[in-house]
Design brief:
Elements: H1 7-15, E1 41-46, H2 57-74, E2 76-83, E3 87-94, H3 99-119, E4 131-134, H4 137-149, H5 151-154, H6 169-174, H7 185-188, H8 194-204, H9 211-223, H10 230-240, H11 253-263
Antiparallel strand pairs: 1-3, 1-4, 2-3
Length: about 260
């Protein structure tokens, strides 16, 4: 499953998607983030001011282990991940609407206490709210996995994804045991057995990710937007029972009404 033929269509899809993690206007309350049952999400959690959140190999191991504990307890299936020096990427499917917030809140409290104690620091470790974008898995699941697992390569930390120990690549591509991961059906569909799946997965990495896909995924995740096309957006809208595309340019209805009232004064 490649990222060919995305181009302008993908940019249009990203630009028309919803903005669930932003204010709709000054003085108005921010929309509550939504998490649909069984809908995969790309998640990013960054360190405060983009500072380090991992300081030693033991920190990575603790985070991964505690993420496994919390995800198991609250029903969050982790399909792909990478733990970078100052941020984390996850591709995950919540089994309940509250699976994501409960998992990350539980993990966050536990891990921040650990780092504050070890580093003799106080205060927050995270940069505000984590970012999340629903992903059309039929179209982009494997590309999203590749994007996540190639982070250390793009950052110049390693030459190949297999050389980085804190990601899901070694499990997907080499068969390494990783208790954190739950195989997605699209990964299992790569082959009849584990060896075939790993071979096909490695072959996916021979084709570079296209720039439009990378830009669109970043845009969607950082803006809390849907990563998918028109049909996918319609499905999300139906599930949420609300608009998932931005309103046309111009004043919001309430703002227009306020202007009419002011004109009468």
């Amino acid at each position: 499953m490649g990222s060919k033929g995305l181009g302008s269509e993908l940019y249009l899809a990203a630009s028309l998607a919803i903005e669930a993690i932003a204010s709709w206007g000054a003085g108005m309350a921010r929309h509550r983030r939504y998490f649909l049952k069984n809908q995969p999400l790309h998640l990013i959690q960054r360190g405060n001011n983009r500072q380090a959140i991992f300081f030693a190999p033991e920190d990575y191991a603790q985070y991964r282990g505690w993420l496994n504990d919390a995800a198991s307890e609250y029903g969050l299936a982790i399909h792909a991940y990478v733990l970078m020096t100052n941020h984390v990427h996850l591709l995950a499917t919540p089994q309940e609407e509250e699976s994501v917030p409960r998992t990350l809140q539980s993990l966050g409290r536990r891990y921040v206490r650990h780092i504050n104690r070890i580093q003799r620091r106080t205060g927050t470790l995270w940069e505000g709210r984590y970012r999340a974008a629903p992903v059309d898995s039929d179209a982009y699941f494997l590309d999203c996995c590749r994007y996540i697992e190639l982070n250390p390569v793009r950052a110049g930390m390693v030459a190949r994804p297999r050389d980085y120990p804190w990601s899901s690549y070694r499990a997907h591509g080499l068969g390494a045991a990783d208790a954190l991961l739950t195989d997605h059906p699209l990964y299992r569909a790569l082959g009849r057995n584990a060896a075939d799946r790993q071979k096909e997965y490695r072959l996916c990495f021979r084709t570079p990710l296209e720039g439009p896909f990378v830009s669109a995924l970043r845009h969607a995740t950082n803006g809390g937007r849907v990563m998918g096309g028109e049909r996918f957006r319609m499905e999300i809208a139906k599930a949420l029972k609300r608009r998932v595309t931005p309103l046309p340019p111009g004043p919001r209805p309430r703002a227009a009404a306020d202007k009419r009232q002011l004109a009468l004064l």
